[in-house]
Amino acid sequence: MARAARRGASSFGPRWLRQRLAALLPRFPQVALCVAFSGGADSTALLAALAALRDRPLRLRALHVDHRLQPRSAAWSVHCRRVARALGVQLTVRRARITRRRGESLEAAARAARYALLEASLAAGEALLTAHHQDDQLETVLLQLLRGAGVAGLAAMPACAPFGRGMLLRPLLPLPRAALRGWLARQHLDWVEDDSNAQLHLDRNYLRARVLPPLRARWPGAGATVARSARHAGEARALLDALGEADAARAAAGTQLSAQALRRLPPARRRNALRFWITAAGELLPPASRLEEIATRLLAARADAQPCVEWPGVRVQRAGERLSLHRVPARARGTAAAPAADGADFGEVTWRWHERRTCRLPAPFGTLALEADVHGPLDLDALAPRLTLRARRGGERLRPVRGGPRRALKKLLQEARVPPQRRGQLPLVFAGERLIAAADLWLDESVQAHGAHGRRGRLVWHAPA
Asked: 461 near 358, Cβ under 8 Å?
């Protein structure tokens, strides 16, 4: 095992990277590449090796995210600019704004902000490359195991995954950290060290400094063998996702799920279908206790109870025999909605969503936002550039299930057990005279995404608090 590790450590370089990218990207080298460049050793090795592939016509650029959490972050940005300029690579610096959700660590919030900026900066069809390597994969699997993760968590980081309008690639996963450091030393390249890596109160740093050295002393090939286990878990996850997709499709009623259909599933498949439904909507999975609560208590409640289960940023609500998924603004958590006056109206509001993605309505109708989302149910290409928003006036109809009948909105609201006061607050979205959406509850089939649509999104209604 030790000899295999040493062979891997000596294999990294431009030639190895070319072969790896050709295996991951069928269109390489025609596809545009963008490196997430932190200035650390790993991303420096990745960017420098790519820059050395100038015998092929690469479209290569780099992105650096300044989290502004460290006193030296501005100096790191300067260093990244200098390195990129020396390598002849265009660099863009983005500055993150970190906002923490309730119960979220600063590190997790910074990671979410970083990936949001990277996703927003990625061009259509472009591949984002990160420098995660075999040691990162080992740390990730062990951390997930210590947190009691399931198959999805133990699958850790895939080598290739859809991301924004392009792809996310981790070409260095087969290589240990030593391979990259050794190559950098031979190229006489320098890098920056993040001072926070020495803070042992952070789980990953503690694992790296105190746990992994004795583990590797006893099992030198731990990185490679654990990475193989992660690949096995990834295959199992793909099979579970396929089963979850099939079960969720059979229980689907538009963007909602049938409680009756879910109750017919065995408990393990029920939880699996719920996981798929939640992640397919682009939301973070709930803690295991919350997922179990959805799969048991929420489904077993009386039909008129309207129970809900909530975790940071998300709520699953049951109304009648339908489960719906809602994003919850931080300010609205734990607060009751103010009742609307009977017959409240705001006339008509024109919404040019290309120009402003958020439409603020008069009280008590809240705010309606259109968010880009690669997993979203809304086909942005089918959406008219000018929409009209108005309140319910009676007689509205739409077709919420593809190929199904047109349904009266009044009937849908009754079946979903939406409280009468809430019905009067719903903003309705029209394209001309056609009703295409009722807040974020139902979409007409004319604007529903399906198949391989490239541009997707979702409507998010921030109800009055």
From this structure: no
Spell out the residues 6+ positions from residue 234 whose beta carbon is closer than 8 angstroms to its own: 155, 156, 158
Closest CA to 365 of 256, 283, 439: 439
Residues 161 and 195 in one domain: yes
Beta strands in 226-373 (DSSP E): 252-253, 256-258, 308-311, 314-319, 322-327, 349-351, 358-360, 367-372
Dihedral sign (CA 301, 303, 304, 309) = positive
Establish if 333 belongs to a structural domain: no
User: Minimal CA–CA distance to 179: which of 304, 360, 24, 41?
Assistant: 41
Query: Token digits for 424?
Result: 């009067």
For residue 6, count CB atoms less than 10 angstroms from its CB and return exposed for 0-12, middle for 13-18, buried for 19 or more: middle
Q: Are residues 199 and 53 in the same domain?
A: yes
* 82 in the same domain as 217: yes
Amino acid 338: pLDDT: 35
Residues with pLDDT less than 50, the chain: 1-9, 330-343
CB 415 within 8 A of CB 442: no
Residue that has been written with the tokens 């390598």 in this structure: 87
* Residues 260, 319, 294, 285, CA torsion sign: positive
- 47 and 170 in a single domain? The answer is yes
Rounded (10°) CA dihedral 5, 6, 12, 17: -30
Do 289 and 425 belong to one domain?
no
DSSP E strands, 279-366: 308-311, 314-319, 322-327, 349-351, 358-360
**Calpha distance 20→441 (Å, rounded):** 44
Instruction: State the DSSP code for 448.
Output: B
CB 322 within 8 A of CB 253: yes
CATH of the domain at 303: 3.30.465.60
For 223, residues 6+ apart whose C-beta sits below 8 A from its C-beta are 5, 134, 135, 137, 138, 176, 216
pLDDT per residue as tens digits for the range 301-343: 887 777 888 887 788 989 888 999 887 764 433 333 333 333 4
Hey, which residues does 36 pair with through a beta bridge?
A: 63
Provide the number of structural domains found in the chain.
3
Range of the domain at 163: 2-229
> What's 130's domain CATH number?
3.40.50.620
Same domain, residue pair 270 and 313 = yes
The tokens for 291 are 């997922």
